[in-house]
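[job 4471] stage=fold_predict status=RUNNING
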Amino acid sequence: MKALWLRNKTRAFKTQPDDDYNRLERFDTTAGKDQGQRADLCEVLGVVEHEKSDELFFRQFRFDMGEQRSQIANRIRRKAGPEIFDCTKQDLLSRSSQSRKPMRERVCDFEMILSSHERLETHDEWNLGPPSNPSQQVTPQASAHPFPSSTPVLSRSVPLPPRDPSRLFVPCPGIPIEWDAHTFYTTYPFQLHSPNAKNCAPYDLMIVSGIPRARSPQCLGGIVTIEGIQPCAKCSRLTLDVNIIRGRAARSFEHIRDHNDLSSDQLRAKVTVVKDKVNTLRLKKLDLEVSLQRAQARLSEWIELFHFIGQNSGSIPPLHRLLGNAEKEGWSATKILEYCRLAHAGQYTARNYTQAEIDLAMLIYELGGAGAIYALNHSIFALPSRNTIQPYRRQLNLLPSVSGLRFTDIFRNITTLFGPRTRHEGEAELLPPVKCGHTVSVDEVAADRNIDLMHETDEMGGFCLEHVSKLETVKIGKDLRSVEAAVAAVKEGTVHVAQEICVAAISHLYGTDYGAKPVYMGPTCKKYDLIYR
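[job 4471] inference complete, writing structure tokens
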């Protein structure tokens, strides 16, 4: 059974009576009297459970007894007469006939106990000390019980033993809160002491001489020592709770989950961060609105471009090359639409030709000639022109015969046409080493009557081979004497300017590279006897 222990100079008592205690035993034995006193004490103070008889408990008990004594002078029992003993009046009278003490004396004892219950005067045997004002004389009030009122009762004028000064109740000073005095009022979470706080602080906050102190709600009073008044045990155990709150206040608000635990500084910092975030989101919203408007405008431009290309896809000459330029140059939809309209009107042609288009144009030129390449250049396909493909063609430096039929000129042309080729990368490429037949063809083609300058040989070309031997030389040299002699010979009619060119060509009898290749080119006037010569 849990019990509250009271300590006397010579003995200790349990405040709660035994479970089988009978209230009528108060008048029979000394033990019954003690049990009755303890029952009265429990009814006044209430049942207080405690397991140890330590100094902390006795200070609390003396404090509670002093509080009860100061208020018990006018207190009236709720029960009177035999009801106090939980029995009837007949049981009380029959019990008194069996006792060794007359009933009248036992009633007097009962009256004294009743008065002590109302004013707690008889409990000074536990060294509770006098009331707060010993000089005050209190007249007990009449109790509602069936016994004569003339029964003597215990008055407060009865001399009491002196009170022990070491047992005085001293208010507890609490424990000091180690906090920076300059930042305490801005960094301490005062809202934790509100009755409606979600996470209420487990102590009460006091400011004593500008120093914050913590006191437990179950404070037992201060301890008087030689060094001074020390906090009680309950207040001393608050150090851990104070350190938790101080550590939480020292952290950033981002590391605290519940905003109810934030101090004013942390709340201001959080408000500042939230304001910055709100401003950032507001600016982002404005940016998104502007971006949306621009996107809608650009979408309308792309839709217009799409409709224009869809309606005129067959009349925009080089559409694929135009879009390639747009991607390379980073054109907007408006600029692409502008150039599409120019191309549709024939005022713009994209010339970023691919290698496949150049090869196709060269093939068409070789097969169909200049007329075919011209027609395709001005068509919807807009293939490269002859001048465009000319740098990509292989240059065959053929040497015509201008001063006579010479084997060296023919051999050089054969080497140029049938010898090693040079790629665009500069590497030599030999013809396939195959054996096949060849065909030699000789014919004459028309030519313009003019004299040309052969830069490689510094000779004049265009004189007929039949009469060019009548000139001393066809080389120009450092002066104009040979030119003047040639002019005079042409005027006299001894030398003619050729109107046709005799061409001899060799062709492969093979599946590839079978085209005729000219190896001899000589101007002629067709006025000589070859057999005679």
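[job 4471] summary: The chain has five domains: 5-163, 175-258, 267-344, 355-392, 407-524.
[job 4471] exit 0
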